[in-house]
Structure formats: structure tokens, C-alpha cells
Amino acid sequence: MDQAKSEIIQAHPIGKHLDAFCTLFDSQHTLYTLSDEDLQNLTIDVILALQGLRASRLLPSSRNGKNLFDDLSRLNSAVNSDSFDLTYIKPLLTAILAIYNSITESTPPSRLVASSIQYELGAMYVGVPRFYEAFFGGVAELETASEAIFKKCTAGTSPLFQEGWTGWPGDANETSVLSWLADFSEKLVTLAEDHRSTSTRRPLAQPHKSIEGSTVERKLDVGFVNNSKAGKDTRCKWSQILIPGELKSNPSADIAPKAWLDIGRHAKEVLAAQDTRRFILGCTLCGSLMRFVSTILGFLWMNEEELGFDPTIKAADDQRFILIERNNRKERLIIDELIIRPRCIAGRATTCWKAHLEEDPRIPLVIKDSWQYIERDEEGDLLREATDKGVINMARYYHHETVRVYDMDDDIQSSVRKGIDITSAKNYQPERSMPSLKNSTGDSSDTSRKRPFSQTNAPLPPSKRSCSASLTKFSLHTLPNRVRRRVILRDHGKPIYQASSRAALLAALEGCIKGHESLQQAGFLHRDISINNLMINEEEETHSWPSFLIDLDLAIKVQRDSVSGARGMTGTRAFMAIGKLIGEQNSYMHDLESFFWVLFWIFIHYDGPHKSRVNDRFEKWHYVDTEELAGIKFGVVASENIFRKTATKFFTEYYAPLIPWVNRLRRTVFPNGEGWTKANPEIYSSMKEILREAQKDPEVVGV
């Protein structure tokens, strides 16, 4: 091997890119037991993984091609043909396995990968000064009452407290402790009645009963519920849980892998079930010596705002509503129903409600709350400008504001955390690196993930999270901070994958492409064309667009017919254009390619308007390396033969009649099986024309 090739390989190692293939087999002999079809699919997976490596584009071709990537593309086409003799490929796969096994046997085990809840929670801190004062200090009469009640607990011939809490199980057995806690809490509630009523709130101890409302069975050791009759046999829902808690046998068990992560999982369930919850307080019970009386009373006496509920969403006469000031007059918006509430702890946590103006119920509105980085341009400003410029088929602006709580902007650092300084925590590490935040016109790496809100089993990843590729030192002045912004829209609908027919879906997609073209001509680049951002409204009498785009969270302003100047992977991973995955500058051409991938994804994962399915072959699109994903996608569209076979095999029966039309879109978006090299606004017209023709196809219409 010459020096140049060696340097390329050393600079761009394979790493773990073939792990998914190699770990499927316990020995090399397993390859020879596979059927021809399984071996063919396996080989294509390996080739696509190799194409995803940067080295494949840097190493020269062994023939007359452009590079090794070109050679692999030809091999992929050959393997996918019915005439290829698969026995020729087995020695190559055997060699890959042999090398892999020899390396992994001599490599020490890697560290455990962080669980999803660890990733979402991020850094966790203990010993934060002023924590108790910040969250319990505002509870009226708490300190005075706690001292008085504790004195009662130590008085009499049978005191509740005497060098420890009376009756506390010496072995800290879970069942015994929880039984003790339930009895003691009732006594504490009775003692507290002399000072202040606890109304309907009660402690709950049910370690062996699952809580209703989870996507998986989940149990809660201890907690506080909004149910005055709650007892050990009461079946509660996550929507009733006010404070989740965990029991650990002693204080040494109160560490991240045990107690904290469990609290995080419980908090995630509570936040998902309570659409007006801004934050969650939780507790761990670790041994009998704790700030017990004041903590329990605090949880019983806190008002809803102190528990993290949103005071801007009010209730009266069995209705929920918000108040806004618009055009120098106050308006009341009645909330009709929840549209979407993501199951997450951190991130934007976008929550949407369908609502209407109190004076005119005929006109529906959508209220959208999300936690945005302060540095980002406000979506409301972009929407207002787009609406003023007459952009069509884009959700229209009605109002926007920064939500205020207690006469301050509702942000994380000052409002939610109440100004506590986490850099003073006992386990704070000054040299910890955290993602830096840049203006939305700068370089960024905002890969995002969304789950369709109406499909709990839908094959999409969790809620969108954004991060930047660069790192800075973590200090008080650079701590990332989010603020809650509220946008109100004049259009409502449902995602296009819920369209009532194939023709309706195609018409909606055509309308969304028109909207994108109008948006681009007005000087905006959307940058997040994804399955939940393309909407359809099929109501006969409606004030909304029949189909339209939503979500300008990641949008930027650009000059017409130009790239944005901003590099980075901004969007939803499964639908991102190949060029964006390898770091090209953002362009409306990338968004047009994303329309293609949305259609491709729907036709694989939905067998009609309301029937979703998971396809394991495409689940890797959510987590593989971005360059590997670029290679996988290129392998799908580069060859018409491969694309047709892929579509025939994986499109659902419902969408199979659309294979010829999707292939025509592929030829338009990827001319000659390659990506675009020059921006071409004519592609808008070409894509719309194909979709219009497809709507007339008898096979598509079903006549």
C-alpha cells in the first residue's frame, strides 16, 4: 500500500461503523447458513456502511471510477441484481468478520453507554446553595409551623421523634418503610390541620402498583397526589402525581445511577401527562434522618405555581383559557384541546393546543409554547413578517409573546431555577465543556428528532433537541438558557400522513411545496421539512389553508436564489438532504430533497391514514453517523434499479401504486442518480407537476 492511501486510512478509520453487521454473528460459519436473500440484504448493508465512511470518497478507484465510493456503488448494483453469484462475496464478509473478531478480542471493554435518560438529564448537581430557600422559602408559615409541629412530635409519653423517628424500620426494608411513611404522613397531616389546611393533597406510597398513563409499566415508590382519598389501594394516574419520590435504603444509595435517574424517569411521565407543568420537584427518602417535617409540609402546602404549574393558563367555569394583549386590547382565548405534548425533560418541549377566540368560536387558533434558546431569532417575528409579505400555504401569524411569570420572563435560570447558582454546587466542575450557542445565522449542528403526536407506536424518534458542534468552557456567563415563547397561529390541521386518501396526501404535499416556494421567494429558508411540519386540513368549512407548512423554529432569512451561508446539520435527521449530512451550506434545494424523503418515509411506515408500522431496516437512520447516513441514502437513490427494488420491497401495500411516481420525483431531485450541483428553481415546478399528474392516475385514485 502506498503512503498516500495509508495516511488516508489512518486519518479516517472504520471505527465502529461495521459493529451493527459484525455483532450479528457468533462465528464466521454463520454466513454460510444464510439464505440467498438474507445474504444479499446483508451484503448491501455492509456496502452502504462502507460508503458512509469518509475514506471511501478519498481513496482512489481500483478501476476507472472517481474513487472507492464509485467502485462500491457498482458493486452494490451488481449484488442487487438477480444474476450475481453471492458465493463470490462470502470470502469478503468472512475476512471482515475475522479482522473484527481479532481486534475486539484484544480490546478492553468500552465504558457503558449512557442511557437515554442520562443523556436527556445531562449534568446533575448536588449541594447547590440556597436550593431549599429558593423552592420552599416562599411557602407561607412553613418554617414556623414546622418548628411547632416538630415540637409536638417530641412531646408526650409516646413521642413520634426520640433520637430518630419512632417506628422507623431498622433494616430500611422497602415495604416496611413505605408502610411507616403512609401512617406517619397521615399523622403529620392531622397535626398540620391546626396551622393550615392541606386541602385535597395527600402522600402516596405504592411501590408495587403501576401508575396509569405510561407507555411502559412504571411504578412509583412514594409521591404526593391531588387526591384526598388516596390510600395504599388507590390506583392513581400520572396526571394526578404532583411530586414523585424514590425510596433508597440509606443516604449512600442517593446517587445518580440509583435514585436520581429514577426520579428523572418519573418526572418525564409527569411532564408528559400534565400539559401545563413547567417543571417538577422530586424527592428521595434515604434513611430516617432528613429535613422531614418541613419538606413534607412544604409539598403539602405549596401552591400550583410553586409546584411548577403554568399560572398563565387559567381555569374558570370548566374552561381553560389564556389572556393576551393584542392591538392594545385584551383578548381571551379558550383552549379546546391539547394537540401535542412531547414526552421529554429537556429541550424545546413544544406544546400545542387548539383554541378559539372567546368572542368568535368559529375561527380556530393554535397556541404553541416552546422553550427557545435566548440567542435564537424569535419564530413569532419571522411568522409575522412572512404573513405580512403574503406568503401562501404557511401557517399565518396571529400573535406572539415571551411568556412572563411573576413579572419576569419565564426562563430557566431566573424563573424556573429561581436564580440559584449551579456553579456553586459541591460537584460542579469548572472545566466541564458544554455546547456553545450561536445565532441562527451562524454555523450550527441542530439535528432534531420528532415523534408523530397521534401515533404512540409510530417509527420516529423522540422530541426535537438542538445542539451546537462547537464547545466552550462552562461558566455562569455561558450557561445555556432557554426562555418560553408563545406563538399563536391562524391555521390548524393534521400531519399529511393522516390524509384521508393517497390523492389527498399528494395534493397536500403539492400545496406544501407551493408554500415553501412562496416562503423562499419572500426571503426565508425553512430548514426543517419533516413529517410533522407538513399539514393538511380536510374540513369542508374552514378558515385554514387546505395544506400548509408550520414551524419556523430553525428558519433563517436569506437572499433569493442563494445558499444561506450557514453550514451545519439543521433539521430532522431522517429527512435531511444528503448534502446537509456531509456539511454543505444550507440551500432551498436541500429542503426540496427533504420533501422527497418525507414521502419516501411515509410510504414505508404507514399503511394508510391511521396505520403505522416500524421497519427495522430504516430505524438506523435515527442514530447512525451522519456521513454513514448520507451513504445509505445515496445508495437508495443513485440507481433506478436499486430504488425500484427497494420501494417494491418496503413500500406498504397501500402506497405501492405510487412507486412509479416517487421514482419520477427521484429522477427530478437526483438527476442522473447524483445530487444537485447548482441551485435550480425550476425543480419546484417539476415536482408540483409530477404530483398533479399522480393525483389523476387511476391506480392512485383507486378507480
UniProtKB/TrEMBL annotation:
Residue ranges of every copy of the Fungal-type protein kinase domain listed in the record: 291-603
Q: Which residues lie in Polar residues bias regions?
A: 436-445
Superkingdom in the source lineage: Eukaryota
Q: What is its EC number?
A: 2.7.11.1
Q: Which GO terms describe its molecular function?
A: protein serine/threonine kinase activity
| Catalytic reaction(s) noted | L-seryl-[protein] + ATP = O-phospho-L-seryl-[protein] + ADP + H(+); L-threonyl-[protein] + ATP = O-phospho-L-threonyl-[protein] + ADP + H(+)
The first-level EC class reads: transferase
Q: Which Gene3D superfamilies match?
A: Transferase(Phosphotransferase) domain 1
Disordered: region residues:
421-467
Protein name (record):
non-specific serine/threonine protein kinase
Organism source for this protein?
Answer: Pseudomassariella vexata
